[in-house]
């Protein structure tokens, strides 16, 4: 499964990328909303993991602009946000599958 991971903080981007790769995903990255939109225009992804709080174009605006670049409305979008802004991520932003998680992502714990 090919994912686009969008995060403006380099250390968080590296950590979350490693978590997703360890879980078996093919991960491409973007360091902000503008870069994400450019990549989404030219590449198809099976899912998008998107930071809400970014300085150039925030995650909510990226989601709003997805329609204009003809992204398949069934492409899952996971909004990643610090606990303090979780409420902002909980409102539906567009039709189709989406979910919010708390940043940074952490590896799955193995069952014991």
Topology diagram in text:
Blueprint (H helix, E strand, L loop, with lengths): L1 E5 L3 H13 L3 E5 L2 H10 L4 E5 L7 H7 L11 E5 L4 H4 L8 E5 L10
Parallel strand pairs: 1-2, 1-3, 3-4, 4-5
Write up this protein:
The chain is built from 4 helices and 5 strands, in the order βαβαβαβαβ. It is α/β, with parallel strands linked by helices. Strands 2-1-3-4-5 form a 5-stranded parallel beta sheet. β1 (about 1-5), α1 and β2 form a beta-alpha-beta unit. The longest helix has 13 residues, at about 10-20. The chain is globular.
Short structural summary:
The chain is α/β, with parallel strands linked by helices and 112 residues long. Helices cover 30% and strands 22% of the residues. It has a single domain (2-102), classed as Rossmann fold (3-Layer(aba) Sandwich).
Structure characteristics:
about 110 residues, alpha/beta, Rossmann fold, 4 helices
């Amino acid at each position: 499964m090919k994912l686009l991971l969008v995060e403006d903080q380099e250390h968080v981007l590296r950590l979350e990328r490693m978590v997703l790769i360890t879980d078996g995903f093919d991960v491409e990255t973007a360091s902000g909303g503008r870069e994400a939109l450019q990549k989404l225009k030219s590449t198809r992804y099976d899912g998008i993991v998107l930071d809400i709080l970014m300085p150039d174009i925030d995650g909510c605006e990226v989601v709003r602009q997805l329609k204009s670049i003809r992204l398949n409305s069934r492409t899952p979008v996971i909004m990643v946000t610090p606990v303090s802004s979780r409420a902002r991520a909980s409102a539906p932003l567009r039709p189709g599958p989406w979910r919010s998680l708390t940043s940074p992502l952490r590896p799955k714990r193995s069952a014991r």
